[in-house]
Amino acid sequence: MTTTRKIGLLAASAAAFSLLLAAAPAQAASSYVALGDSYSSGTGTRSYINDGTSCLRSTKAYPSLIAAAKGYTLNFRACSGARIADVTNTQISALTASTTHVSISVGGNDAGFADVLTECAMPGWASNCNGKIDGAQNYINNVLPGALNALYTSIRSKAPNAKVVIVGYPRIFQGEDCNAFTWFSPAEETRLNQMADLINSKTSAAAGAKGFSYANPTSRFIGHAVCDDVEWLNGLSNPIEESYHPNVAGHASGYVPTVSPPLTGSALKVNATTLQRAAASSERLAAQQRTYAAADSSIQPEVVRVPDLNSARVKAAAARAGVDLSSRASIDAADRLWSQRQAAQHAAATR
């Protein structure tokens, strides 16, 4: 075979290979839609995209970090304050048949978790923490499952081909309260953690019924609760909306390793490159979410409020309990006494 003929055959083979490549369908880019509330938006990380909303979306939140690590195209719809109805009315319109990945945390605001924390943060003589928790548990047991079932049905209908991961909530406390202006007793913290566990249980069951995966962060956050040596969850904070939410470490070291295996098929670790890629997506995400700003304006942020010892309600409670509001020692001594009494009453009622 002559050299000229060999060259001709090689050229023909290369041309044929190029035609095959052109005829092969291109692999579709992964389309990731992050739905849900403040635990998905990144509230607590103290750094938010400028999207013209009060959703407090952060490139340091787990959806942004996972998208950056895997090269997914993210539509970041999660919004601080979102309830199930908000997800239905303002977020799931972002889902389509081409959506490949979906994550969502929701239910905590529906159960009134911020209001429960606000009540339980008060001194025991001025609050009805157990009553608030009882009301929330009643909602979680009797209303939440049906609401989640309807929402998950809608998600599957709008994103029939997507991998869907339902994301739970961590336990906030580990038996101590080191914040100067809150009065959570150990018994109250236990019940608040049980409330988070109950939401997770009902959410997991609803997810399983739809064939969705469930990511439970509980074990990952053990040792990193509020007031632990290395906090992944903020305590009472300034500004107040940062309170009782995962911080930067909570998302990077708590949520990313929890959510990434069921969502992507592999356990991801956040490194400097991931952080840089996520940060670089800020302007794109902000521009994208501004197009939804009118819809997002209907979502009301849910925040814990600082105990107000000067309110008429508290002053009346102090008078009944014999508390001197000018004395921290008097406030704290009465709190310990009333908290012990309330814990005993709850234990007796649940026997």
What does this structure look like?
This protein is of the alpha/beta class and 351 residues long. The chain is built from 15 helices and five strands. Strands 2-1-3-4-5 form a five-stranded parallel sheet, sandwiched between helices. Strand 4 (163-167), helix 8 (186-209) and strand 5 (213-215) form a beta-alpha-beta unit. The longest helix is centred in the middle third of the chain and has 24 residues, at 186-209. The protein is globular. Mean pLDDT is 92; it is low at 1-28.
The low-confidence parts are: 1-28
Mean pLDDT: 92
Structural class assignment? alpha/beta
Give the C-alpha Rg: 25 Å
Order of helices and strands: HEHHEHEHHHEHEHHHHHHH
Separate helix tally: 15
Largest sheet: 5 strands, parallel
Explain briefly what this protein structure is:
The chain is of the alpha/beta class. It contains 15 helices and five strands. Helix 8 links the parallel strand 4 and strand 5.
